[in-house]
């Protein structure tokens, strides 16, 4: 599977955190309306896009793109302009240490 044009194929990272409301409801991160962006891993990227690479961790606008299923796995196809943050793991670890 290869992205073409201005498209990026991503796999949304599993959501682990939950939050309890004052009424006792448990909300997982995907149900929280105050979070507009979601973390994902790039699976495939078009040759036209030079600023990102396969396996980059990103945050993207969770309302963007569309879902696809390939070989019983679910992916999402988004555009480059939907990516808002690229995480650099080593840099993030250094920042969090300080």
Cα distance spanning the termini: 40 Å
Q: How many DSSP helices?
A: 1
Helical residues, percent = under 10%
Oligomer: single chain
The largest β sheet comes out as: 6 strands, antiparallel
The value of Rg in angstroms is: 15 Å
- Return the average pLDDT rounded to an integer: 83
Q: Strand tally, please?
A: 8
What is the element string, with H for helices and E for strands? EEEEEEEEH
Question: Uncertain runs with pLDDT below 50, 5 residues or more?
Answer: none
**Percent strand:** 35-45%
List the defining traits of the structure above.
single chain; 98 residues; mainly beta; six-stranded antiparallel beta sheet; two-stranded antiparallel ribbon; 1 helix; globular
Can you walk through the features of this model?
Helix content is 9%, strand content 44%. It is built from 1 helix and 8 strands. Strand 6 and strand 7 form a beta hairpin. The radius of gyration is 15 Å and the shape is globular. The mean pLDDT is 83.
Describe the structure concisely.
With 98 residues, the chain is mainly β. The protein has one helix and eight strands. The radius of gyration is 15 Å and the shape is globular.
List the helices and strands and how they pair.
Layout: E1 7-12, E2 18-20, E3 26-28, E4 37-45, E5 57-61, E6 66-70, E7 73-79, E8 83-87, H1 89-97
Antiparallel strand pairs: 1-4, 1-7, 2-3, 4-5, 5-8, 6-7
